[in-house]
Automatic annotation (TrEMBL):
Belongs to the short-chain dehydrogenases/reductases (SDR) family. GO terms for molecular function: oxidoreductase activity. SUPFAM superfamilies: NAD(P)-binding Rossmann-fold domains. One of its GO terms (cellular component) is membrane. It comes from the Bacteria. Keywords: Oxidoreductase. This is Oxidoreductase.
Length: 251
């Protein structure tokens, strides 16, 4: 069945490249109005051009571009206020933006690097949730999708800052899902797995990217989680070849 997001309003962070770019593009193609958030203006403008071209062909989808560094906490607050003033609610949140930091022994990680990873991956995610939670609760079928990573569970050597940040994100998602379990809002985490992105190339520079799925493939599997028909909440969805594996977050 073709996903129809006509009339739905979605915020997608990290929308200028990689998985976020393709989630935003595919949600717009399904009819959503996408509020695309990212630091890189050029990437946002390229996304906007793609969405406008698709709209010219099909009459579906549009975008509002928000150039924003997610380390700007008051900027995140302003985003929520602007959405409330213009639209009065929000239907979909995709909290995708994140940074890797460095792959390094934990004792060698510089304080400024650790603090940036925690600021962008954890604190900004909390601030975004705080900003849009009231708006999602005003939707008839609010959907929140928060990107995590297998690093949160594997805790591999040299990945400590990133792994810790994603473990913290999953803990927040678990709490948020439990708080909203008796409401129409559904909150889930997604582990996209190894994907052909710039972050993956930074983390594993010797890897052949052609062996990894393209971000558009992973996005196509994530976007349906925004459907009003989704009933699961408090789940972690893990990308496996040709399928999702999902499990309930422990109580």
């Amino acid at each position: 069945m073709t996903l129809d997001l006509t009339g739905r309003l979605a915020v997608v962070t990290g929308a200028s490249r990689g998985i976020g770019y393709h989630i935003a593009k595919q949600m717009a193609a399904a009819g959503a109005h996408v509020i695309a958030v990212a630091r890189t203006v050029g990437g946002l403008e390229e996304l906007d051009d793609e969405i406008k071209a698709e709209r010219a062909r099909t009459g579906k989808g549009e975008a509002t571009l928000v150039p924003l560094d997610l380390a700007d906490m008051t900027g995140i607050d302003r985003l929520g206020g602007a959405i409330h003033d213009r639209w009065g609610k929000l239907d979909i949140l995709v909290a995708n933006a994140g940074v890797l930091g460095v792959i390094s022994p934990i004792g060698h990680v510089e304080a400024k690097v650790f603090e940036k990873v925690m600021t962008v991956n954890v604190t900004s995610t909390w601030r975004l949730i705080r900003s849009v939670d009231p708006l999602l609760r005003l939707s008839d079928a609010g959907r929140a999708i928060v990107l995590s990573s297998g690093a949160a569970h594997s805790a591999r050597a040299f990945w400590a800052p990133y792994a810790a940040s994603k473990a913290a994100v999953e803990a927040m998602v678990r709490s948020w899902a439990d708080e909203t379990r008796n409401s129409p809002l559904r909150v889930n985490a997604v582990d996209p797995g190894a994907t052909r992105t710039a972050m993956r190339a930074q983390a594993v520079p010797g890897e052949n990217p052609d062996t990894l799925p393209h971000p558009s493939e992973i996005a196509a599997r994530i976007v349906p989680l925004a459907s009003p028909s989704v009933t699961e909440t408090g789940m972690i969805f893990q990308a496996k070849p040709n399928r999702w594996v999902s499990y309930q977050m422990p109580a």
